[in-house]
Specification:
alpha/beta; Trna Endonuclease, Chain: A, domain 1; 5-stranded mixed sheet; two-stranded parallel ribbon; 31% helix
């Protein structure tokens, strides 16, 4: 991850080879220094991307080493690193890992989202990277929604859903939060949609925005915002 246009200190570059918490790259960007940040997990990179966008709304950046298009997403899934693909997919919609990073079976709950007036209504995410998806997986997610007493379930899929899957998801009905418009109780979101829309790919009333800790907005005047991550 590297800042290519910050101009206040063009003579050197600040390197943070373990930038998972965003602290140093945030500080350097705030004062327009050039920097390079490195981390090894998609979860950490997703955290940094979100916090930089929150803090510097006009910032523009490219992240190297993570999928930039649907073909690269398929390649990541095909390379046998499913857990890394899953973490990356969850980071697109700012969802927490379903088991909070602990080892062991996730029981069909790959990710978590929270929403509602009190921020305590649970949304669950099921990530699928394979081509052999079908109606039975939508039914399985319905069961997980019921078991977890969740308000909404998100089926996040690398493969385009079939019409029967869409119909089965619609049959789950709507979820209503007092004071908000109803949303689909079971939502199918493709990875391509998530890459384009990020959090907006999922419809949640009064979404709680602290799955990744939100960075305070930095209102630095006349800043130059293009980054290369």
């Amino acid at each position: 991850m590297s800042n290519s246009t910050a101009s206040s200190n063009p003579g050197y570059v600040v390197l943070d080879p373990f930038c998972g918490c965003d602290t140093s790259v945030h500080a350097e960007e705030k004062v327009w220094r050039q920097w390079i940040g490195i981390d090894v997990t998609h979860l950490a990179i997703g955290l940094i991307e979100k916090r930089m966008r929150d803090a510097f709304p006009t910032v523009q950046f490219t992240t190297h080493g993570v999928p930039q298009d649907i073909h690269a997403a398929r390649d990541l899934a095909a390379r046998g690193k499913y857990h890394e693909f899953e973490k990356w997919a969850l980071s697109l919609i700012a969802a927490q890992p379903g088991n909070f990073g602990k080892k062991g079976a996730d029981r069909g709950l790959d990710g978590r989202l929270y929403f509602g007036a009190k921020g305590t209504t649970l949304g669950i995410v099921s990530v699928k990277a394979g081509e052999n998806i079908g109606v039975s997986m939508i039914r399985d997610l319905k069961d997980v929604i019921d078991r977890e007493r969740a308000g909404v379930g998100v089926f996040l899929t690398l493969t385009e859903p079939t019409k029967p899957m869409v119909a089965e998801a619609a049959s789950a009905g709507l979820h209503e939060e007092p004071g908000f418009a109803p949303v689909a109780r079971l939502q199918i979101v493709t990875i391509e949609q998530a890459m384009a829309l990020r959090e907006r790919a999922v419809q949640l009333p009064a979404r709680r925005d602290d799955a990744f800790k939100r960075a305070a907005r930095e209102d630095t005047p006349n800043r130059q915002g293009a980054l290369d991550l």
